[in-house]
């Protein structure tokens, strides 16, 4: 088995690297927690694998190291920030700090952020909301990038445009984090580097032909990822990608219609308080009924049982908190030059 590291050790290591790179202490700590949480949940392309690229962004001045977001609009339940290219995980964490107490007064609170830097793994933010008995929706797009074609097309328009949500049940919460494309840019890059194919026809080459080769995304001109649903039902992923664009760039007032500034995100965050709608107990009665019905459904051939979204991630998180985080191969190797350059001690394994 690969070496494991205590989650607290990884957080301290990432915090030290980011602090030495120049981030404010609170920003470094928030980014470190979110990246480690991504690995705890098993999202290995969106956890500490992002730390080396983030450090490179800081070094070249593409990520703002200090300061606060600019408040564009502030109503009790509707807030808009200009993120000033500050660290995305810190901005989203701060937005939740604002939205949760306001939602408890108003029933709901929405924060949209324009000109954020990349926000990492969306699922990493959700459990803190459901732990308070609340529901959350979170989505983002990157107006500076495009790798996904609209259904029926063969040129990139969108990023994978993930949509995440979570809500409590009587047991574990339901936690979902899905891309509106058939896969992510992070996994595409990893498979390409490892010279491995997609498991199916997940992309189009530059001529518009379906392919399982990630290298199709790296030709000139490049191919594209297919929307969720693929060659047959990609109109569904395409429609949801348009919805995400409206929730993020359009509501925030900064998106694909604006000049490119660099790797970043337009962000939509909404917190809802069930107690101020139909009631907290009634909410849990309904969500648990549906969850139980799904779990009780007889599995089809090839499946052991029916699982709920987030179930595997929460189980993996509990195991890794108890026994250490098993990082994907190559992550610490990619960080080794930064460890030496910034004078930080590499994390010890268990």
Largest sheet: 7 strands, mixed
Q: What pattern of helices and strands is seen along the backbone?
A: HHHEEHEHEEEHEEEHEHHH
Gap between N and C termini: 12 Å
Rg over CA atoms, rounded to whole Å, is: 20 Å
| Number of beta-strand segments | 10
Number of helices: 10
The 3D shape can be described as globular
Category by helix and strand content: alpha+beta
Low-confidence stretches: none
Return the CATH architecture of the domain at 70-282: 2-Layer Sandwich
Mean pLDDT: 97
In CATH terms, the superfamily of the domain at 70-282 is Malate/L-lactate/L-sulpholactate dehydrogenase, NADPH binding domain
Question: What strand order characterises the main sheet?
Answer: 1-2-3-10-4-5-6
Task: Explain the overall architecture.
This protein is α+β, with helices and mostly antiparallel strands and 350 residues long. The protein has a domain at 70-282: Ribosomal Protein S8, Chain: A, domain 1 (2-Layer Sandwich), CATH 3.30.1370.60. Helix content is 39%, strand content 15%. The protein has ten helices and ten strands. The chain has helices spanning 7-21, 25-40, 51-59, 88-106, 127-130, 185-193, 230-252, 280-296, 311-323, 331-342, and strands spanning 70-75, 78-82, 108-116, 135-141, 163-167, 174-178, 203-204, 210-211, 224-225, 265-272. The strands form two sheets. It has a seven-stranded mixed sheet with strand order 1-2-3-10-4-5-6, sandwiched between helices. It has a three-stranded antiparallel sheet with strand order 8-7-9, with no helix packed on it. A hairpin with a 6-residue loop joins strand 5 (163-167) and strand 6 (174-178). Helix 1 runs parallel beside helix 3 (51-59) and helix 2 packs across helix 4. It is globular, with a radius of gyration of 20 Å.
């Amino acid at each position: 088995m690969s070496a494991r590291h205590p989650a607290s050790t990884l957080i301290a290591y990432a915090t030290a690297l980011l602090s030495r790179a120049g981030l404010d202490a609170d920003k470094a700590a928030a980014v470190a927690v979110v990246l480690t949480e991504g690995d705890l949940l098993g999202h290995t392309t969106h956890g500490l694998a992002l730390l080396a690229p983030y450090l490179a962004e800081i070094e070249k001045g593409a990520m703002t190291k200090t300061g606060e977001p600019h408040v564009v609009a502030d109503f009790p339940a509707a807030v808009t920030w200009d993120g000033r290219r500050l660290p995305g995980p810190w901005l989203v964490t701060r937005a939740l700090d604002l939205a949760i107490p306001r939602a408890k007064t108003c029933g709901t609170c929405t924060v949209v952020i324009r000109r954020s830097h990349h926000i990492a793994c969306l699922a990493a933010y959700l459990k803190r909301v459901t732990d308070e008995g609340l529901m959350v929706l979170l989505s983002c797009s990157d107006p500076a990038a495009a790798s996904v074609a609209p259904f029926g097309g063969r040129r990139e328009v969108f990023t994978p445009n993930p949509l995440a949500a979570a809500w409590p049940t009587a047991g574990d919460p339901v936690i979902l984090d899905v891309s509106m494309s058939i896969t992510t840019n992070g996994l595409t890059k990893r498979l390409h580097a490892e010279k491995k194919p997609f498991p199916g026809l997940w992309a189009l080459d530059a001529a518009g032909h379906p392919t399982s080769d990630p290298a199709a995304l790296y030709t000139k001109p490049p191919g594209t990822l297919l929307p969720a649903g693929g060659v047959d039902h990609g109109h569904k992923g395409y429609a949801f990608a348009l919805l995400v664009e409206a929730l993020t760039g359009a509501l925030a007032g900064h998106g694909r219609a604006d000049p490119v500034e660099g790797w970043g995100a337009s962000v939509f965050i909404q917190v809802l308080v069930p107690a101020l709608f139909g009631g907290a107990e009634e909410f849990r009665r309904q969500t648990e009924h549906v969850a139980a019905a799904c779990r009780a459904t007889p599995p089809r051939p090839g499946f052991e049982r029916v699982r709920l979204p987030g179930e595997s991630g929460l189980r993996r998180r509990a195991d890794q908190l108890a026994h250490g985080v098993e990082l994907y191969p190559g992550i610490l190797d990619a960080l080794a030059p930064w460890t030496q350059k910034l004078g930080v001690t590499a994390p010890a394994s268990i």
